[in-house]
Amino acid sequence: MFGIKFIKVDPSTYLIKSRNGKVIKEGFGLSFFYHAPSASLVSVPMGSEDALFMFSESTGDFQEVTIQGQVTSKIVDVKALTQMLNYSLNARGEYVSEDPKKLQKRIVNMVQVLLRKELAGLNLKEALSSAENIASVIQEELMGSSALKKLGVEIVGFSIVGIKPNKETARALEAEAREMLLKQSDDAIYLRRNYAIEQERTIKENELRTEVAIEDKKRQMREAEITGKIVLEKKNEELVALVVENSKKEAEAKAYAIETSMAAISKIDSKTIQALAMVGMDPAQLIAASFRDLSENADKIGQLNITPDLLSQLIKA
Prior knowledge:
Layout: E1 4-8, E2 13-19, E3 22-28, E4 31-35, E5 39-45, E6 49-58, E7 64-75, H1 78-84, E8 88-89, H2 99-120, H3 124-128, H4 131-143, H5 146-151, E9 153-165, H6 167-266, H7 270-277, H8 283-296, H9 308-316
Antiparallel strand pairs: 1-4, 2-3, 2-5, 5-8, 6-7, 7-9
Helix pairs in contact: 2-4
């Protein structure tokens, strides 16, 4: 009635009321009545706002990729923004221009330009694996952008959800990846087999070295045994030689003793020897010796009488 309106904004919206170019009231979350024909209202949302994007760009090796992501921005300087863009409201509380909607479009366009620049220096494989690095670089450039500072806008966050090739390229990469996986699998099998062969060879070599060591030990034992036998035989030979030498010397000594005795006896006449031999004889032996002497001198005896009593006594003895 009479052009009187009421407006109320949320706490994250900055509202400015002016009349004839002069600011009457401004602040966050205001609510008041105003005269629509004479008052001018400017409403600026100060909360963060997300803008999704999806671009088709080319890499440095002319391969098409699709990039998806999100940029989050926030208006931090109302005065700078309202000098560059129109955020005025009409009597129905709607924006009188498309500028509020174009702000996010401007930011997304800046993102696209920066992404195109980054992708131009990367080949396809590098681009597909560098989403995080690309996002970090672009966020830093957006936060330092003088154009955004003039608009009073600050970049809160930037992320790349994914970088994907087109279908044909994706199939080619999948085939290449499969071939690489198969090659890696074959290489792994080869390495396992080669390792098993190497292990078996090592085991065989160890067994052979063990057998050689055992044979060498046996040979050493045989050589030691033979050496021991040789030493023993030499000692036996020396012992036998010593025994023979001693026996020879003993025989020579006995022979010398006999020879000496015989030489001494040869100088004594037989009668003396016989007399010496009769020393200690019993009577029977003496009588027998006497008969022997008689027989030897029988030609010198005229007559010899032996009585039966004498023979009887000799036989009894």
